[in-house]
Amino acid sequence: MLSAEPSLASTTVAVPCGVCGSSAHAVYQPGMCEAEGARLDWVRCAQCGVVYVHPRPRLDGHARLLQSEAYLEHGFSRGLSESTYWAGRDRWLDEADRELEALEPRLGYVGRLLEYGAGGGFFAEAARRRGWQVQTIETRKTLANYAEEQFPLPVYQGNLVDAPFDEGSFDCSVAREALSLSPDPRQVVAQLYRWTRPGGHLWIREPSYFHSPWFRGLRAAQRMVPRRFLGPELTSVLRIDETHSKLPPYLLHHFHRPSLERLLVDAGWKIEAMTGSLPRPDFLFRRGHLHARERILQWGFRAIDGLIRGRLLPAAHLQVLARRPL
């Protein structure tokens, strides 16, 4: 006897906002995600404005998505990278080293660092090589095992609330694109607050493109977008039309400045800096010979990124440095 296909109710769950807890929301982009046959919406919280997936895959289903071959091939970068997660090892280590080189002068110290959602351990390993005492948390067994086997890193593989750390154990906590993957970002920032010493810091990096006017404008003006000029790769990255929109719900939240600020402040953090940027796709910035169309697009990305960093345009990516008050 054939088994019935899973129903929407068996594979998903209705959830309140992960920032403020409100259940009031409006549909933002209908049916934009798909998981196990279920079509899921992106909705916008009526209270804090954060954009999130609703209904959401159940926890076990979402965990499977984040360890799937499709995610580790290209889903983790949302199409921006031409490297798979594993093949990009040296690149991720180099990028993490540059990120730390820019961060350390702002912190004024090198000490004890905790990374939540450490993935394969690339950022933590770069920090260890720079003299940090590191500890990582990773819920996904596949990635936690990789970090332990490939690097000399201490990895706690399990749920956040069960991690055996004392209050104030770390000088700096890091969550790089981990809040958007978490079903409960409020719990994450509150727990990291407890584990970070008074006067210590939190460093966050999160995508915000789905929440931006860039995304809304392109979706609203689909028929006017010059797809032949943009090319299929960029059209896919920008999620301009239905053909390129049906993705698994790897990300559960897309923040904007007010919602990310509220999330952190409600947990007790004091924000010291919040900056924006525009991610650069590999097919424009890591290939050798570029055609005239690609050079124009590359120039456009550089110009927009400069204006975003100067806070003259809305961000597609956000970075936050916060401190636990003394």
What does this structure look like?
With 326 residues, this protein is α/β, with parallel strands linked by helices. It has a single domain, classed as Vaccinia Virus protein VP39 (Rossmann fold, 3-Layer(aba) Sandwich). Helices cover 36% and strands 23% of the residues. The longest helix is centred in the N-terminal third of the chain and has 19 residues, at 89-107. The protein is globular. The termini are far apart. Residues 1-9 have low confidence and may be disordered.
Measure the end-to-end span. Answer: 64 Å
Q: Quick one: CATH superfamily?
A: Vaccinia Virus protein VP39
Total individual domains? 1
**Helix tally?**
12
Q: According to CATH, what is the topology?
A: Rossmann fold
Overall 3D shape: globular
| CATH class category label | Alpha Beta
Q: How big a fraction of the residues is strand? A: 15-25%
The secondary-structure element order is HEEEEEHHHEHEHEEHEHHEHEHHE
Percentage of helical residues?
A: 25-40%
Average pLDDT: 88
**Which class best fits the helix and strand makeup?**
alpha/beta
Largest sheet: 7 strands, mixed
Low-confidence segments: 1-9
CATH architecture: 3-Layer(aba) Sandwich
Instruction: State Rg.
Output: 20 Å
Q: How do the strands of the widest beta sheet line up side by side?
A: 8-7-6-9-10-13-12
Q: Which keywords apply here?
A:
326 residues, alpha/beta, Rossmann fold, seven-stranded mixed β-sheet, four-stranded antiparallel β-sheet, 13 strands, 23% strand, disordered N terminus
